[in-house]
Amino acid sequence: MRQRTEGETPEEPSPVIRRALQRVFSSSSLLKTHRRKYCIFTYSAVKKWLSLCHGVVSFKTFIFCSSSSSSPPFTSLMPLLRSTTPVYQDGNHGIFQSSFIADENSTLYSSNSLSTDNTSFTLAFERTKRKDPTKLYNYYTGGWNISDEHYWASAAFSAIPIFVIAFAWFVGFGAVMLFSCCCSCCCRQRRYSYSRYFYAFSLLMLIVFTCTAIIGCMVLYNIQGKFHNSTITTLDFVKGQSNFIVNNLQNFSRNMAGAKSIGVHQVFLPAELQAKIGDTVKAVTISSDELSSRTSMNLRNIDNFLKSVRIDLIIGSAVMLLLDCNSLSTVWFSLDGFSSPVHSYCVEFFFFYTSDTCVAMDEWVLKPHIATAIDDILPCVDAVTATESLTRSKEVASELAKVVNDVIVNVSNAKFHSPIAPASSNYNQSGPLMPMLCNPYESDLRDRKCLPGEVSFEDAPKVWKGFICNTNVISGKEICSTVGRITPSIYREMMAATSMSQNLYQFSPFLINVANCSFERETFSLIGTDYCPGLERHSKGMYCSLTVFSASMILSLIFWMVYVRERRHRWYSKQFIAREGQAAQVEENKL
């Protein structure tokens, strides 16, 4: 189709197609409703056109009885996650009333380290440039965006030729059957022509296409099983990545909270830093809990949707195959011929969506932006929270190392009471001086290299263990009775602080990746290379196998009618020949 030039009046579709499209796509009056949060397909908003994709049994019954189906359709139409930052297009009001995910305000969005220039950046722009029937058949230019009803309308319209074929079959076959009935009633013939070769040919074609339909149904069942497994595997991968982030954030939060109570020989972190730790723990806990709840809810709903699609496809194909084999009535022929392309229409629409999503992921990995539609799949953790957490972890790790070193300098290695040390500093410590702990950060939180004579986190337990003295308890106080610089209780406190400082230091790479959204980019990159090829291959295989199955079923129905007609004519011919023979015999007897 050529692109409409500026000022040119758009082509108007035929009245039949226009009325069908008006039932398929959302009414324009819904666009005038008050602005809602972006969400994805729900029951109330899309039942007018989604009912076309509902179970084939209920679909056949209702399409024959009424022009508006009231059976409950699928609960949604394959979205993954709704964006929490609705900034994609002016005028996109979001016609869907309930969300596929949690609808609270979120602290999850793309990292500030990513590009913020979103005015000219759209995902999968070339691939999603399709006619949009809700905008006077102009081209949709919003890119991949599952929160935009115009994206779904344009994707559905791309598969509309199959629906037109189904509608043409429904109308054409009905007209042919009506004409045949009129001819049979008004122009009764007493003689029936009969061709032995045509009778054998129709029987042969009936067997061939019936077997092809059966094989196609088996192949379709096998491929949809593979497709279902691929989607479940992909969802499990996304869930695993989300769980990895959530678990690490929760572990980080627990470590930060535990650092507030850690002290060595009654020396603790500064009160101001402890207050900052509390704020950081609260922010991280909120982000991790929301990411966990949103991911669990969305993937659970997606899994339920995929199961419903799988069951509907299996039952629909089985029922159509059963009707094909039994050929119960000519009314079902028309409905079978209509519902088969409609199933192909739904599968092709689903193939468009899968391919669009994979292309959008690849483009986002190459050029990551904030506040794009890719947030609908796996949003980044709040960059402010992640950056603040990274700074606070460095601060606490450095302060804990300072606490340990202060105790080593002012208590363990002291030969007399330090003026800043508690009164219990003198416990008869003696012997070689203890090495200090290597602080991983400078005072400005830049990375710091260890100086000669300092011990690392890994070596500290073994090295310091050699400075433990044997103690006696005198007046409730541990006193060294042998050579040594620290008592067992001080050693345990120093190791607790050192271990906590090491844990927070090791969280730095993770927090850096969270802040710059590296985990999401890695996730989408792996999905594009490892999962998308299988999803596209299996969805395309479903479409091809369903097309073959539908075509074979329709042709088998046609040849079944031809075969039944020829068989009836054969029976009439035999009866006519028998009557002619009897009449001739009677004439001979009379003579």
TrEMBL record:
Keywords: Membrane, Transmembrane, Transmembrane helix. The chain crosses the membrane at residues 162-185, 197-221, 546-564. GO terms for cellular component: plasma membrane; plasmodesma. This is Uncharacterized protein. It comes from Dendrobium chrysotoxum. The lineage of its organism: Eukaryota, Viridiplantae, Streptophyta, Embryophyta, Tracheophyta.
